[in-house]
Design brief:
With about 475 residues, the chain is an all-alpha fold. It is about 75% helix and about 0% strand. Helix 2 crosses helix 18 and helix 3 packs antiparallel against helix 7. The two termini are about 40 Å apart.
């Protein structure tokens, strides 16, 4: 199978351009000054983080030995960030079935459509991974010069690409096996679960690898992690052999991934086959109750809701016995669905726009998400209490996940994910991350008490609430059904 397929390339470029243009047409990004402001703030944050890392690295001796240990520790975390990028790309695209329906009349096969989506996923995963690694790797070029560039590629860039293709190959093979076992409806979820388990097993060994790397640094004996094999080949056999091994491995994995890629149907399937009992007295229901009722039913039947709940529960189970992240933080995966709720209900707004105030509409969106998130958070806390691992930190994390719902609902209004645009979701997450990081950096300058920090957090949430309600009010004046 040819690695470069013209129909697939054209389809990939169409998907990417269509999503980028849609992102710039809807929401606040339709304004040029907003794009410029967000870009400037993001660039300022990247420069600030890079400067901080440069100052930190400058305190150590600038020697090849120090460069090797820094790249070794960066490579140690590489599998986790690659899997995070892979999962983010899968979650965003599983929430965008309308993206497939755009090409329903195109003269392409489902196989070619699936490969084009693979390239789009690689683009999203690459953006996520690069965002995390640029602030920590760019200072190495400033301190060690261009000779460090080759080692960065051999220790980070090339292994990252190979790991991403390996994750996709495992996912494709798992989906194929699950389909053979007549688990067609659950095949993609099983594939994601297997990849998450592999990432968890890799993360469990990180503390031991960190200790071994530190001991190797002081004893001057090299210690190689499995993800750093290309740098080992370079040290033992030279640059030509290392690049040749990378090219052969990448070409082989790419052909295997393309040949095993599951086809993507052009039919948009946004809801699960779930029969709900009709609401009694629907004709006598007030418009206020109807909005909340519709939002709750939309959440219950949406495919991405079930996917988020399953991913959240799986992450909670895997994190309970590990020290990687607090297990209660997995509830944020469910809260993330707040981004899609407004866009899912935009088609219904004409029916109640003249009868309901914007503040109640905004409140209904938040209440619907709370009705889904609060029980799951209570279950997580109850499980930890039964295991004797309940702590105030877990309670505060669950409360923090609940308080993130108004922020995400407002972002979903400002950056509507029309046709479940994955780039709009990524832009919303990035904008929120930049805002919170900039706020944290600004507040770190002052020695504020806990009460002051809580007050600033409440002010930030109140600002988002006001902006969300105001945007709903303004959007109702010239509203169109999409």
């Amino acid at each position: 199978m040819n690695v470069i397929d013209k129909p697939v390339t054209v389809l990939y470029r169409f998907y990417l351009k269509q999503q980028v243009r849609q992102l710039g047409h809807d929401g606040i990004f339709s304004s040029g000054w907003v794009k410029a402001a967000v870009a400037c703030v993001a660039l300022l944050m990247m420069v600030t983080l890079t400067a901080i890392a440069t100052i930190f690295y400058s305190t150590a001796e600038a020697s090849p030995k120090v460069l090797d240990i820094l790249l070794a520790f960066s490579n140690l975390t590489l599998p986790i960030w690659v899997i995070v990028g892979f999962i983010v790309s899968k979650v965003l695209l599983v929430n965008s079935p309308d993206l497939m329906s755009v090409t329903a009349s195109f003269p392409v096969t489902n196989k070619q459509r699936g490969i084009a989506v693979l390239y789009l996923e690689a683009t999203i995963a690459g953006l996520v991974t690069v965002t995390f690694f640029v602030p920590s790797l760019a200072p190495l070029l400033f301190i060690y010069g261009l000779p460090a560039l080759g080692r960065i590629f051999l220790a980070i860039v090339f292994p990252g690409l190979i790991l991403f293709l390996l994750a996709h190959l495992v996912f494709n093979l798992t989906v194929a096996l699950a389909s053979r076992l007549r688990m067609i409806g659950l095949s993609h979820y099983v594939g994601m679960a297997i990849v998450i388990v592999l990432a968890y097993l890799s993360a469990l060994k990180m503390p031991n690898h960190s200790i071994a790397l530190s001991e190797a640094y002081y004893s001057s004996h090299p210690y190689w992690v499995w993800s750093n094999v290309l740098l080992k080949v370079y040290v033992e056999h030279g640059l030509a052999v290392a690049i040749g091994a990378f090219v052969i491995a990448t070409a082989t994995l790419l052909m295997l991934v393309r040949s095993t890629a599951p086809g993507c149907t052009s039919v948009a399937v946004k809801y699960v086959h779930l029969t709900l009992r009709p609401q009694r007295g629907l004709r006598r229901m007030t418009a206020r109750r109807a909005i909340l009722h519709t939002a709750v039913r939309n959440l219950v039947r949406a495919r991405h809701t079930w996917f988020a709940v399953a991913a959240s529960c799986a992450a909670f189970i895997l994190l309970m016995d590990s020290q990687i992240l607090p297990a209660a933080l997995s509830l944020e995966v469910v809260s993330f669905m707040s981004l899609y709720l407004y866009s899912d209900l935009r088609r219904f707004r004409r029916m109640y726009q003249g009868f309901v105030k914007p503040w109640w509409e905004y409140l209904s969106l938040n209440l619907a998400m709370m009705l889904l998130t609060v029980p799951i958070g209570a279950i997580f806390l109850g499980i930890q209490a039964l295991r004797g691992r309940y702590s105030e930190q877990n309670l505060f994390l669950v409360i923090g996940c609940l308080f993130s719902i108004p922020l995400l609902v407002t972002l979903g209004i400002l950056l509507p994910t029309v046709k479940q645009n994955p780039l709009a979701s990524l832009a919303a997450i990035g904008s929120l991350g930049v805002l919170l990081l900039a706020t944290a950096c600004a507040l770190s300058i002052f020695s504020l008490t806990t009460v002051h920090m809580l007050g600033i957090g409440a002010l930030l949430i109140a600002t988002f609430v006001v902006v969300g309600i105001r945007t709903l009010h303004d959007s109702g004046k010239g509203m169109t059904v999409l």
